[in-house]
Specification:
This protein is an alpha+beta fold. The protein is 28% helix and 38% strand. The protein contains seven helices and 14 strands. The strands form two sheets. Strands 7, 8, 9, 10, 11, 12, 13 and 14 form an eight-stranded mixed β-sheet that branches.
Length: 285
């Protein structure tokens, strides 16, 4: 078992509360590390877990978990927890886990999940859609489809995501979040393999040759899995395709680092918009 065998890897740092009197990680915490990595696995599949399981008509239950200890992790160690789906049966799925410190394997594990009806907790066959996603992810396939279009085509899904993020989560007034510019904007929505929208944004024409990206929203449950970057790239590709030489955006200051990593530079002083600190940023093609 090697670190490079895993497409999904969760990184963490050992905390004081996780070590025992021997000053090494208490053995039971390794299962918690793997379970935490499982949340990252669903994000890597672009699957909001609760909504996706409702769509699939069941839940994933752990039937068996085994660990093999090879070496110990210590306080402040940086660990990488790899997780992969190794086999899918009729109603069960076998996941393999490896916990690494650098290239050194500390703990290996296996978890057997059973897909079951939550009302009766009786096993049912793994849905073909879920099996296809698991097998596709492990084979390196894309987990989202990016669609672009006008408000008539994408407004329902884009609006639902934006309401969840900007209105309910951030407390922005609904009549401020939605504006007349939606009608003329080019919109982008990312859909997972169940057809669920997981991210959205829009592209405006700020001036001849200058585009403006805005209303970037990613479903809270799948953030941190690079879907925001995929969405941003989709909107930049649309700007480049229509001949824009520059793209601007009004970034929330909390997301400034995200946009800087994508090549944007600060182009103005911070200011307040809808009660949230923003800053103008720009990138040239």
């Amino acid at each position: 078992m090697q670190r490079q065998n895993f497409r999904c890897v969760h990184r963490l740092r050992v905390r004081w509360a996780e070590v025992d009197m021997q000053k090494i990680v208490f053995n039971a915490h390794y299962l918690m590390y793997i379970d935490t990595a499982m949340s990252d696995y669903w994000r890597a599949l672009a699957l909001p877990y609760e909504a996706s399981m409702q769509t699939l008509g069941g839940e994933m239950y752990v039937k068996k978990a085994t660990l093999e200890y090879h070496a110990s992790a210590k306080l402040d160690d940086t660990l990488e927890v790899g997780l992969r789906c190794a086999r899918i049966g009729n109603s069960s799925s076998l996941f393999e886990a490896g916990i690494f410190s650098g290239d050194k394997l500390l703990v290996s594990g296996e978890l057997v999940y059973v897909f079951a009806d939550p009302s009766m907790q009786t096993s049912t066959p793994v849905p073909p859609a879920l099996q296809a996603m698991l097998e596709g992810f492990e084979a390196g396939a894309d987990m989202v489809e990016a669609r672009t279009g006008d408000w008539n085509a994408l407004g329902r899904d884009a609006g639902r995501l934006r309401t969840a993020v900007f209105v309910r989560e951030q407390g922005i007034a609904a009549d401020v979040e939605a504006d007349a510019l939606d009608a003329s904007a080019r919109h982008a929505v990312l859909y997972n393999r169940l057809g669920q929208p997981v991210a959205t944004g829009r592209l405006l024409q700020q001036a001849p040759g200058v585009g403006r990206i805005g209303r970037m929203a990613v479903d809270r449950s799948v953030r941190g899995a690079q879907w925001g970057r995929v969405l941003l790239n989709t909107l930049m590709d649309a700007a480049r395709a229509r001949g824009d030489q520059q793209v601007q955006l009004h970034a929330q200051c909390s997301a400034q680092g995200f946009y800087q990593r994508a090549g944007f530079a600060v182009a103005g002083e911070p200011y307040q918009e809808a009660g949230i600190a923003h800053v103008l940023m720009a990138r040239y093609f």
